[in-house]
């Protein structure tokens, strides 16, 4: 046999002698690897098949036969490097001389060592462990293909077929992976649905069981009732039969009795006819006929009597009807009288309630004053000491102190002291740019004190009001500018942008100091948004209307009014003021101090001095307005029946306002609600659209917002009934 080439795996045969069973070629090791997994009892059959295969392939094999037996157990494992096929061919000669039971071939050991090392190096903990485990076997198969050139096409086709099949299987697995996940999801959803359905069915079954038990109890109850009713029916039937028999026997007895009575009557009539001497002269036929006609008349009369009883059995006699009608009329008159008495008592009760409320309020006020006096009671100060301190001397102090109590005198003294200190200041410290600082006072550093007189400040405020009212009159359709912004703009127009801030600080400090001055205090309240502009405007309109009515009442144009005319004008302008309030205004007008008690110079009531000090009458008008507003809001609070910290809804406030003031028109009511809940008029809900879950605001906030605007009574608390 020829020796193999150094790098070729194809062999050429020189003889066709059959191979011995104990020897196989090197190329047959590939066949033995496929047969190692077979069982031992089939080894002989495999050996015979391998001998036939070797004999058929002998013509194409050149080399030595391997002595390694085909039935030896073990795995063909490659080394970590590619085995040399030349080395295997060199060892082929020695393999042929070795017996069957010798050790493994060197080439097979290298393959096993290679496969073992490769498998040990693999990380089999990953998901692709099987793919990695297949890679060493693929490499060994590639080595076989490269070393055995003769079988390379066949082995390559086998490998490609397996690779194609593996790729196809991988694609199918990839395609089935989403279906698997979807299947798991669907399975979980189905399980959840099944569990939910089972839970629902269990609840339904429990409910049905309960219903079944209730129905069974109801059936038992109905059966018991049926049994009791059946027994009662049986008893009633028995009683009915007894009554029927009794009535039947009574009917028969009555018929017999009637027949006996008729017979006796007929006998009596015959006897009477027989005894009377004139009867024998009558015709018996005529008498019989008369008797028959009489009986018919009796039957007809009896029938008419029964009909009248049936028709008029329920009719009341006219005498009884007239008697009952008279009794009813008397009771109705008593009811009307009682109703009138009740209305009078109710009105008296309401009047007493109002009187009680006013009395309680006066009592609380007196008690608080008493507590204040007890707390702060000190020896009465000697106010004459202030004459030398106040600028202007005793005359000015007497003018300032006229008609004022100690508390008011303290305010006057504080204002005088504050005025002197204010005149001594040359600069005001800037308040900065904080959010709590009004916009017209936001500046850093120091601001110059312009040191105006009180007269100058009052005139400046009057000019500001005139310009504000004129601006509102000419630009009523435009959006209204905030009063604080208007005030600063007015100062810029009046004194220029450079001095506007200085005048703003100067005016602000002055109006903050003089609380007793009505013009300054009202301007300060509007500027600090404690009072609405409408309050000032409405108050001025009321004063103008009052002066106009007094002028109209003065027919002689002498500027004088009588007490009756003055009182009539006050009642016409203020129809809802109480009598004591009207009396206070008349006393403030100076009736008791006038030299002529019959006439009053009304024009002097509406004057004011150069520093803005108004007359006692004007001051009393403003004080009564403030008191009436407080009383109105107090009535609203009492009608709501809530504490200040409790919350109230818009429907509740609407209902309370309509209760305490039924004469409120819709527009005025909506303006009150808009201010209280800070809602535009267009967004206020109608009464039919109001719900309980509307916006809720603290009662204290509602009262504070209403305190800012011009809110007053529009009519009596309850409308008088019309006759």
From TrEMBL:
InterPro entries from the UniProt entry: TSNAXIP1_N
Composition skew (Polar residues), residue ranges: 1-17, 28-37
Domain of life from the UniProt record: Eukaryota
Keywords noted in UniProt: Coiled coil
Organism: Phyllostomus discolor (pale spear-nosed bat)
Name of protein: Translin associated factor X interacting protein 1
Spans annotated as Disordered: 1-49
Coiled coil residues, start to end: 205-239, 291-355
One CC-aspect GO term: cytoplasm
Domain Translin-associated factor X-interacting protein 1 N-terminal: from-to ranges: 112-221
